[in-house]
Write a structure and sequence with these properties.
With 161 residues, the protein is an alpha+beta fold. It has one domain: Gcn5-related N-acetyltransferase (GNAT) (Aminopeptidase), CATH 3.40.630. The protein has helices at 15-25, 34-42, 90-104, 118-126, and strands at 5-9, 46-52, 57-66, 73-81, 109-114, 130-139, 144-151. The longest helix has 15 residues, at 90-104. One of its GO terms (molecular function) is protein-N-terminal-alanine acetyltransferase activity.
């Protein structure tokens, strides 16, 4: 338990609530549907749920790891936190848990983030990510741009953020 919430593996039964949060948080873009979450889980990607003290899903995050040793790469697929819980450490805890997983594979980590999401960009930079490029009109249908960001391989002893 951390500040009124816990992290645990995301379950298939959470997919509907994830899709609801997507519609609430990302209405201008193409929010993921329930089927997208189910597909990610079925593919074996690493997804986490953040739950409040009553067990309600308040956030989620996902990481895909691709490749073979020693050349793994990881990609943050999504991080989302209910508006009510934003600014309370949920996103940070989810990101750190994803990064711990990537570090188990000794994998660099990549992600995309809206260029106008200063809070997320600051969080990623604080955890060792650097801007690598710009994807114009990446998010649809809004046409918002995205930065591609990356974090190099971390030795497990060094990753003490």
């Amino acid at each position: 338990m951390t500040a009124g919430f816990t992290l645990e593996p995301l379950r298939h039964r959470d997919a509907r609530r994830c899709a609801e949060l997507e519609r609430e948080l990302f209405p201008e873009d193409d929010p993921w549907r329930e089927r997208a979450f189910l597909s990610e889980l079925d593919q074996g990607h690493h997804y986490l749920a953040a739950r409040d003290e009553q067990g309600e899903l308040i956030g989620y995050a996902g990481l895909a790891v691709a490749g073979r040793a020693p050349d793994f790469e990881a990609s943050v697929q999504t991080i989302a936190v209910s508006a009510h819980w934003q600014g309370r450490g949920v996103g940070k805890a989810l990101l750190r848990a994803l990064l711990e997983r990537a570090d188990q594979f000794r994998a660099p980590v990549f992600l995309e983030v809206r260029t106008d999401n200063a809070t997320a960009i600051a969080l990623y930079r604080a955890h060792g990510f650097e801007q690598l490029g710009l994807r114009r009109r990446y998010y649809q249908p809004s046409g918002a741009d995205a930065y591609t960001m990356g974090r190099p391989i971390q030795d497990r002893q060094e990753s003490t953020l």
